[in-house]
Amino acid sequence: MKYFLAKTDPDTYSVDDFEKESETLWDGVHNHQAINVIKTMLPGDIVYIYHSMQDKSIVGLAEVTGHPFENTLDPRFSWAVHMKFLRRTKPVTLKEIKSEPLLSDFLLVRHSRLSTMPVPNEIAEWLNDRI
What is the DSSP letter of 19? Predict the structure, then answer.
């Protein structure tokens, strides 16, 4: 099992929306680096759901339920993956993440615009202790 972080704008698709639907097609990712991350996801992997924009915090957990695939319904090149909502989490803010020296190499800190990223096991352990 691997860990990932996926960002969403809560004004577009929030953790509330995800919880109501219980399952979703995670799509709309067009950045090639983020697409390459999605391609590595496997069923059973865990995804931290991150509210971007005003919240800037991890707010939920999801599980990958299908294999990634090219989203041919999107007019722009993209890949997608099915996920199911697991639970809300205690928010872990970007400010809190940036203040932890152990996380200084985390892509969320170093490359904050990336919408989907891997989460190394040691960072996942740190996050799991806080959610």
Answer: H
Q: In angstroms, rounded to a whole number, what is the distance separating the alpha carbons of residues 45 and 64?
A: 5
DSSP-assigned letter for residue 111: S
- Rounded to a whole number of angstroms, the distance between the first and last alpha carbons of the chain is 18
Distance CA 38, CA 32 (A): 10
The neighbour count for residue 13, using CB atoms within 10 Å, is 17
Does this model's pTM top 0.90?
yes
53 residue type, one letter: M
Judge residue 29's burial from the number of C-beta atoms within 10 Å of its C-beta, 0-12 exposed, 13-18 middle, 19 or more buried. Answer: buried
The model's pLDDT over 87-112, given as tens digits with 9 standing for 90+, comes to: 999 999 999 999 999 999 999 999 87
Give the integer Cα–Cα distance in Å for 112 and 127: 17
